[in-house]
Design brief:
Blueprint lengths: L8 H6 L4 E6 L2 E5 L5 E10 L5 E11 L4 H16 L4 H9 L1
Antiparallel strand pairs: 1-2, 2-3, 3-4
C-alpha cells in the first residue's frame, strides 16, 4: 500500500530543499536551487520481460498550479495508464 497525499499546502509553500518531494501516487514537487517549484507526474510501463520505460509529465509550476489541482492529475493519468494509454500523448492531442 502506497501512502498518498503526503504533502500539505503549507509544506509545499515553505519547501526550500532542492529535489523531488513525493506526494504519493506518482506526484512529485520539483524544487529547484533557485527557489522555483513545479509539479511532475511519473509512471513506468513494462515494455517486455526485462524492459521498463519511465515517463514524466509536467503539470505546471507552483503556485500557478496548486497542490489540490496537481493532486487530481495522477488519478486521471493513472486511469489512462491502466487502460494502456499514454497521458502525454493524450495531452498533446487535446492541445492540438
Amino acid at each position: 500500500a502506497h501512502t498518498l497525499n503526503k504533502l500539505k499546502a503549507l509544506s509545499v509553500e515553505r519547501e526550500r530543499n532542492p529535489g523531488r518531494h513525493s506526494d504519493g501516487g506518482g506526484l512529485y514537487l520539483n524544487a529547484a536551487k533557485s527557489g522555483s517549484k513545479s509539479w511532475v507526474y511519473m509512471w513506468s510501463r513494462k515494455l517486455g520481460p526485462s524492459r521498463t520505460k519511465r515517463y514524466e509529465m509536467g503539470l505546471g509550476s507552483y503556485p500557478a498550479v496548486s497542490l489540490e489541482k496537481a493532486a487530481g492529475a495522477p488519478s486521471n493519468a493513472g486511469e489512462m495508464v491502466a487502460e494502456g494509454q499514454n497521458p502525454i500523448e493524450e495531452k498533446r492531442r487535446n492541445v492540438a
